[in-house]
Input
Amino acid sequence: MGVVVLKMFGLIKNKPLLNQASTDWLHEAFGWSLRNFNAGYFHADTRLVLPTNEHFPGVVDSTEGMAKLIFEQVKRYAGVSHWPTLVIDQNQCPLMDQTPLLLQGAIRGEGIKGGVVKDQSQRLPIPYNPQQINNPEGMIASFAHILAYYLGQMSQQPPPGGADQWPETTELLAIFMGFGLMFANSAFTFKGGCGSCYNPSAVRQAALSEYEATYALALFAVLKEIPNATVGRHLKKHLRGFYKKAVKEIQVNRDGLAELMSIGREPAPQAEAGL
Output
């Protein structure tokens, strides 16, 4: 009975879902993503990508064809259909130089022509693992992570944690682009690859834990005002309870949420009187 009374008056608080350092970093990294990669596009156009046939339609008769089909759909959802890319079997990808990415025009958006070029002519290498063709969520996450790797290089500001947390940053950025369900649901992406074209994350054990990825997904959903049920029906069962608690924890942290919501939504200056 005493415990019930204490809870009623707020004298016993729920234990935080993650350690404070992880929670703080996820908020900071999401803020960094909003500031550097078009908060307006995030709020208006970014969608929660679902691991469904409706979001990834199409049937092809080859592993290479399926990989290319999935990747083109990932590019579209990420808003980077205009990027020149080359999807290639990781076991066949040649050594490629690491010429810095050059930006021409908008980074993300619909109907953009041109955009990112590599040495003015070469396409961005996108290695895939043929063995992953039967794990579409893993392949989608892998492709999204590679795009986030390239996108992150275009930031005007260093990410929180710097180079030491670059793997976590690029995963968070992929979640920011709408692919959080795939990262929360899959602990591993493909292994293997070759040379420098394998940099984007060819071999990786997830840098973010499944709970950190789920928390980042909750940040995305709260900012986009996506109902719990929409996310929960596509999330692994053992993560659903954690996800709901994460949403609640984020909503209770009003100052932190308000700060993220304000990025890219600064009020327009008022006109001077008499004009």
Observations:
- The beta strands are 85-89, 102-103, 116-117, 124-128.
